[in-house]
Write a structure and sequence with these properties.
The protein is of the alpha/beta class. 29% of the residues lie in helices and 17% in strands. It has twelve helices and 15 strands. The strands form two sheets. Strands 1-2-3-4-5-6-8-10-12-13-14-15 form a twelve-stranded parallel sheet. It has a three-stranded parallel sheet with strand order 7-9-11. Strand 14, helix 11 and strand 15 form a beta-alpha-beta unit. The radius of gyration is 27 Å and the shape is globular.
Amino acid sequence: MEPRRDFDEEDGISRRNRAKGVVAKDEQGVDRIKDLPDSILIHILSLLPARDAVRTLIIPSFGRLWTSIYNLDFDWCLDHDCSNSSPWHCSYDEGTLLRFAEFVRRVVALHQGPRIRKFRLHFEFSIDHQLDELMSLELEPEELAIMIRTGGLAGEVNRWIEFAVNRKAETLDLDFLACGYPNVGYKYELPDFVLQSSFLTELKLVSCKVNLSTNIVMRALKVLYLKEIALNDDSTKNFIDGCPVLESLTVLDCYGLCELNCVSQKLRSVTVAPGILEESRVKVACPNIESLSISGWIERLELENLSSLRDASVDFSDCFFCVPDEYCEVRKILEELHQVRVLTMHHHPILVLTVWELMNLPCPSNSWQRLILRTMLTKWHLPGIANVLRSSPSLEVLDIHIIPGEKTSIATALESSECLAT
């Protein structure tokens, strides 16, 4: 019997070598990227941050296709050592912000695409930081005074945003905090024309001043995200009324808001987190929403008229001490959510339930059918889980997602109490 040969007679390459990925000589050095149509290459480049998309200029297969990308993503944090977790971990050298501004300026000037789908601007708009860098340029006193009076980069930022709006951008993501420090002082003032765009479907605003008393008309807007924005009840109502097809609303760490009341038939999802600077209570009354997510200082929240609610997510701030007043406030929150089908509890609420268990304070009875727990699942979480399960007679599905995390003040307090008890 003739011995079997592990050999391909057709091209002289062994099957073994083929399995190892060895390529024939006539296939070596072939640039298959250049055979792709420009539309595919532009789509690939549009998925990259603008900084990386521009760098493809040195690759012959891409050439100057970056000038036609439809997603422009400018992220200042990519230019310096930034953990995105805390301003204390952020490190950047002198001139970083000015170099970032120069890069955005050049990209906007050279862009040739007829339309933009998403425009993202992510940097710290800090007058103090801008002045530090401007001082290094040794400007004349008159020039420096003009920069201070006009808000530094404010004029240029206006032109960048106007460029995006004129190109009929569908998503506008403007984060003027980035990895910087939250402040209630001077902020970038959003131009009014943004609030009158007929093409925007998604708008994200972080740490800027918004003139909510202006005529707001955004008939295509479906997703609105507001963080660290000064609000009041009338201006918020004006904002929502100006967005007739709004489906998702997020309000995080905003101040000045006392009531979030919306009867829109289109609004389906609301996320709200009272900020640390907010001292008054915030009432949420949205009878037609199906999904609600609350976090932060939720003891300052008051939930009313949530008759259509199907699923909810609950998280607390770490500064929760489980004193009697807080227990009553949180109990009211859980009682208002007793009828939802799906409830998600995060790390802190489960620890709070552990404290309740140790104090013989029960979780309110409910009709939850599915409970999702996102927790570190330490020994301190088990009593809290037992507490909530005991109060959930209709429960059919229990999901536990074990997630990494750091020790919180509540866990520290529980450990201290255990040490004292022993």
